[in-house]
Amino acid sequence: VPSPYHSDGFYFCHCRRLDPSERPLQMVYDYLAAIGYQDPLRVQREAANSDLSCMIRFYKCPMNADQQERTLLTGVFSVRKGKTQLHKWAERQVLLCGTCLIVASVKDSLTGKMHILPLVGGKVEEVKRRQHCLMFSSAGPQAQTYFVNFDTLADYQRWHRQASKVVSQTISLVDLSCYSLEEVPEYLFYSQDLTHLNLRHNFILSNPLLLSRFSQLKSLNLSHNRLGVFPESVCEILTLTELNLSCNGMNTVPAQIGNLQSLQTLSLDGNQLNFLPEELGGLAQLSSLGLSFNNFPHIPGVLDRLSGMDRLAMAGNRVETLELGILARMSHLKNIDLRLNGLRWVKSEALEAVKQVTQLDLRDNHLATLDLSSICSLEILHCQRNQLRALTLSGFTLRTLHASSNLPNQLTQMDLSRNLLEYLPDWVCDSRKVEVLDVTHNFLSELPARLLSSLSLRKLLAGNNGLQRLPDLLDHVPLEVLDLQHNKLGELPESLFYKALNLKYLNVSANALEIIPPSSQSEESLSTLQELYLTGNKLNENCAALLVGHQNLRVLHMAYNQLLSFPASKLSKLELLEELNLSGNKLKTIPSTVSSCKRLHTLIAHSNHISVFPEILNLPEIKLVDLSCNELTEILLPDSLTATLHELDLTGNSSLLLEHKTLNLFSHITTLKLDQKPAMTAGDSLGSSTLWNHGYSEMSGQRNKLCVSVLAVDRFGDSVEAAYGVFDGDRNEEVPRLLQCTMGDVLSEELLHSSVDSVYMSNTFLTSHRKLGMAGQKLGASALLCYIHHEPSELGSYFSLTVANVGSCQAVLCRDGQPLPLSKVFSLEQSTEEMDRVKLSKAIITEDNKVSGVTCCSRLLGCSYLSPWVLPKPWVCTEPLCSQDDFLILGNRALFEKVSYQEAVCTVQAVRDPRAAAKKLCTLAQSYGCRDNVGAVVVSLNIGEDSCTCEPPHASTGTEPRGPPPTPLPVTAPPGDPATPSSSSGIASEFNSETSASEVGSEAGSTASDEHPSGPTVRPERRCSLHPAATLFLFQRQPSCTPFSSNQSDNGLDSDDEAPLEGVISNGSKLEVEVDIHCCAFQIRSGPAASPKDHNLDKTHLKKSPSTSSLFGKKLSNGSVVAPEDSHNLIEVAVEAPKKKSGYFTAPAQQDPEDQLVVPPSLEQDVREQLRGQSPMVPGPPPPFTPPSIRDPVWDHPHPPAPMLPQRDLAPNPIPALQQEVYDTAL
């Protein structure tokens, strides 16, 4: 049963022998039920899936004896014993096992007599007079020698190298952790001088009686085994000074523990203990005792006698009442940890003072009042995340306070954040040794002048208050960090920069500043400022002259101000500038003097009016350039680009035209984001884009890699639906990309099995968790998935939004201008239920509230080795959408840590374009101090209550049952009939103008059968986009692994010498797009369906194509990439699409709008009469209609609804397919 653990950078699978009562199939069922599967039939189906072997696996044969005994090398060689010639050479079985050389008979190598030669401290030497021969000698006065003659040079070198490592080891230390041992190996007892033995993370069941033979053993680690009871034989090892028996399920400690008089450290964490024997109090030398995460209802009284112990670790027990009188009697205790105990009362009945306690940790309890005035020597107090209404302290020696106020004299660090303080008490300003003060997220309106004039204060965090002004600085101060974001400051003190000469970081974002103070009083500036954040103020271009004095400036953020320009002469003087953010202003150009900033590596200037590409591509260290949402028309490039440029964002520049030469020059860029030109079909023009459209943004921050991925599909499946998601891997980029590529297809598959939102969403997450394979064992990610859908069986149904998430990604819906959170954050700090569940499973929660010190999230996709503490089962919530819903915001942890729900809603309301809104959210998060990856998706919603334009249903001759429409049978078109792709399938040869690279990679979850039915034609019932009709054709979601047919959506244009497909209408121009092809399994059928054999041929040909193999390893615009190895078997990878050497493939553009037939209203009747005289219409899906009342008060849509004409009955006369398309467009 694999259970990976981390050791020295590797992850190992632990295997154990099954108990006689255990049944493998039942164990699999229990495992699947534990991670979230509920339906018994689904559990049976998942149990038969081969991917499950990455999480749980069974072996038929017994475990390899070599693995149990740590055999390093083995073989049959010629061996001679001793240095004299008296012994002859003989063929023997030779094993290098642990620290010994074992020589045995070939026939009876495991049962016969074995000669064991300890090698530690001995010698391994080359025998020069004999080829490929080594001499092994043990240490000591009675040393023995063996000569081993190897057959090949490779064997000789391998044994020499490995044995040399063994002889250099110290005999006193043996590490056998993570070796799936069921008992203590016999060979260990050949080393009588062993002093340190590590047997943690094994499956040792029985009482290791033989351990008492180690007469010199000082340290023994038996943690994370399956002992069940305290091994009494350990109490006979009188030399022990350190004993670790954590996480063994023990209920009692025997009285024999008193024999270990030399014991100094005893770890009993993670067991089921509720009392300790009195004999434990006789261990005079015991200085450290671990009792965390047990079942103690109170502090054991036996601890009074342990005079040598100075730290009490009892986090995660069941202590509800703390008697300070008991602590007073334990005069030796200085550090007390009582986190996560459910403490409700701290009582101090006697007047006796507690003089010895200096550190007290009471975090994550249920305290309402806390009186610690009797602890007069307290230096460090942690009492966060309680429900404190009153706190009383004796603060004469207090140095670090993570709570509310008192009178400290020696305080150096103080955290008063997230309270209800309206003013700072005098004692805070009188603390003469305070170096760090955090008063963020309070209600302060002013800061005392004495505080800013403090000669000890170096870091002041006062953001998210109501400060209106700062007092003037009267003298030079040592302040280095000043954070004043999210206040109401209209100006800064005039003397700020030349009085605070040590100031290196200043953040005054989200204020009302119109000017900044000068850097000095004279021309010579002594400023040491390195980071300056001015985002979200009212600054204009005049403030640029005041920045010149900060010549050490490395980071400058001036986004979302009122800059019309940036003076070229001023920018040239900031030569040390590394990061520049000027987004959201009214700039028309970036000065050419930006080329003087030789260290510049990041330029972000989206959401401006820039029309000329800046001269930055020659900078030697440039890495990231974001000029999206501007007015660029062309790019003038140098002959060669710097190799450091790895991300270029040019989306949102509608007039930008890029030539093939430019694209070829950009081919080396890892992440290149370009617009896909608008080319819409008749169905798409009136489809879901009028109901919703989206924009997204991903920013890597100060990390070297982007660990956030986005899924965005405006047209999901075969009907008017949408799917959006955010995946955050924290520090790994592999799992988010795998989820981005597969989760849309998994959702499509699950929708075929169930229509219950909680079922198909939960199964989507659990199946995606399984599909992560080996990558999901050691890595994990937070995941958020939003699915917009409706019930097609109900004519009056409206759209609903189903949200599912694990981890810390969140979704917020704007309803009536107010934020409505739809997700749940699964972190130990914010979820009491999850904290209790993890504690009951006996997980070790570290002081920073992380499970086993790895993650603070209790639910993730991946991280299988942390099961059952970390689970993949999601939170699922369904919310009906209404006309008051304006937009939806999706973001990762880093976004909502810096931007509140209300600010996020107000920010999006002020921006008309969803893409620009998403960009602004990420930019604000970075300007507010976020240094991690940030991801945001903004989805505008335009769903009205009267959006239904369905016709009344036609009378039928028979009674039809209610419920979902029956699945129609596929029909075959005549060989010569041209097929018109259905717009709902998303496979037309053009791409939606608002479709991003992320969604193109995920829109492959649907394929449509657009072949014509035979038999009499029936006029289809007219339906609106809200309630599409039950189609007469086969619309079925298919996973991304669907093979490409012979007619691809890229029209076969793989290289310049290939001709386009016949029947493709083009005006001669080509549309350059960047596409994530991992999920693009689009099919366009223009004739008879290809046979399975043809599909296999196409698939084989594509796999062997050099152009397709070169695709992998290159990160696309959405950051997704899949490893090229077929044997990796992490996910179902789609068949690769053709690709040019330049890194792009071309798709012919659709016919120019000028070439299409547009019917004026005055000629409409004449056209109808002419069309009636033509051949009958080819039956097909009815064109979707735009609802008559679509409210669009805020959002700008790139494609306004076309005018609609009333639909009338037409004569069944056939017309060409082109005329049919034009006619539908006109209607």
TrEMBL record:
Where is composition skewed (Pro residues) in this entry? 962-978, 1178-1187
- Annotated PPM-type phosphatase domain residues: 693-941
Q: In what way does this protein cross or attach to the membrane? A: Peripheral membrane protein
Gene Ontology terms: cellular component: cytoplasm; membrane; nucleus
Give the primary localization class. Answer: cytoplasm
Reaction equation(s) it catalyzes:
O-phospho-L-threonyl-[protein] + H2O = L-threonyl-[protein] + phosphate
Superkingdom of origin organism: Eukaryota
Which key words are in the record?
Cytoplasm, Hydrolase, Leucine-rich repeat, Manganese, Membrane, Metal-binding, Nucleus, Phosphoprotein, Protein phosphatase, Repeat
Q: Which organism is it from?
A: Oncorhynchus tshawytscha
Quote the InterPro entries the UniProt record gives: Leu-rich_rpt, Leu-rich_rpt_typical-subtyp, LRR_dom_sf, LRR_domain-containing, LRR_R13L4/SHOC2-like, PPM-type-like_dom_sf, PPM-type_phosphatase-like_dom, RA_PHLPP-like
Classification lineage:
Eukaryota, Metazoa, Chordata, Craniata, Vertebrata
Positions of region (Disordered): 950-1022, 1041-1063, 1088-1111, 1144-1217
The biased composition feature labelled Polar residues covers 980-1008, 1041-1052
Q: Where is the composition biased (Basic and acidic residues)?
A: 1009-1022
Question: Per its Swiss-Prot or TrEMBL entry, what cofactor is needed?
Answer: Mn(2+)
Asked if the keyword Hydrolase belongs to this entry, the reply reads yes
Tell me the enzyme class: hydrolase
Asked if the record carries the keyword Manganese, the reply is yes
Name of the protein in its database record: PH domain leucine-rich repeat-containing protein phosphatase 2
Q: Where in the cell is it found?
A: Cytoplasm; Membrane; Nucleus
Single GO molecular function: metal ion binding
